[in-house]
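Q: What would this complex look like in 3D?
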Amino acid sequence: MRDKTVRRRRALLALLVALSLILISASFGGSGGALHTVQSGFLDVVSPVETGASKVLTPVHDLIHWVDDVFHASSQRDTYRRELAAADRKIASLEASAQSHQDTTKLRRIDSTLQLSPDGPVDASVIEQPNGLWVSNVTINAGSGSGVHVNDPVIDPDGAIGTVTEVAPSSSIVTLLNDPSSGVAARDSSSREFGLVVPEPGNQGVLQMADVSRPSKVSVGDLIVTAGERTTQNASFFPAGIVIGKVTAVSATNDTVTVAPTADLTSLDTVQVLTSVPAP
Amino acid sequence: MSDATNLILRLAALAFVSVLVQVAAVAQIQIFGVNADLAPLVVASAGFLTGALSGAAFGFGVGLFLDLAFAQTLGVFALVFTLVGYGAGRVRELRAPEAPFTPLLLGAAATAIAAVGYAILEISLGATSPVGLRLVRDILLGIALNSLIAVPVYSIVRRWLIPALPEDPRRRRRRAYTTGGLSPLSRP
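A: Here is my prediction, written as structure tokens for the whole assembly.
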């Protein structure tokens, strides 16, 4: 009895496998014309049922699609956010690099124009900006190890910015032109009138050129540049011709000229310390 | 209507509905980039519940139905699912596993055999599908996805077929034992 069952089972399996193989052989390669007719006839019959079933199952279908889309959208959003953050970081880095390159190029041009190479220019970056209303100095990442000394003049791509007042081995503090203790001998580039550039009392954002002997000769819009000499004992010494600012107002009554600094003293980045300026 | 006729009708209806649902709905839904495949789960479940003989015949029928519905080389699905149905039935006849995770393992194995068997047959017939990591990944994801739905599919198939199945001696023994019929303790 058992043998009979086993034989029957095996016979059916062999039959079905053989039938499958015959079907494969017959329909493979488009050779089974009759089979293809059966197939297309079957599709004709089943298609309307499939369409109906598809319509009936549309809500389920849509629900699953919706869930899939939600998960997909969520992961897509996360991916795009990560990509955006990475792109932002890259842009910021490239912009900083471009700005730094631009500043360096400008400084090189100034060095070349004013022939500052003998003055031992040392490039540095500002690592601490002026912090607060009363602070008019910045910290740079060059110190005595780079040849920086106290009283060395410091410039940025837009002009003179201040003088080194403290030096550490790898950093220095630069006191800016708008600090009350600061003073730079300067002259009007058009009229050649001399004066001492100091911060305007009570207004740190503006400089003034004091002790101008003939203020009437100075015009609004004139460039004020360093004089290249020391007019008073306290004045800082800068090489001649470095731009300090532009004249914005002239007062004939008290011999002063108001000067807007060309360098943005509140936002400094790449600077240059002139470490070998010969004494006047 | 005899039990055998009832079983054949129920198997035919199961084959028709499962292929229809597969073609009309499940085949159109992708999860993790792959489709779930009801056919191997239904064939394996039916084979496991009804035995190797009915399983092989049911697998052949479902496979042929799919070959016709997908308008592809006739006999490929039929051959693969014949083997799946026969194998599932033989597992039941030889091992009779009763662990709760049996349907899950059965579904995973059936899906793996169907996917690999289908791929081998198609490649043998000259399909130009790229054989590589993508194919392996799709097969593995398909097995994982089918494993997730194997238990509910088995449960539905079992619920549908059980009225037509000859009573399982173990089930009868268990029921009799719990009602006190055959318990040695209940004997006088």
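A: To summarize the key features: The mean pLDDT of chain A is 82. DSSP finds three helices and twelve strands in chain A.
Q: Very helpful, thank you.
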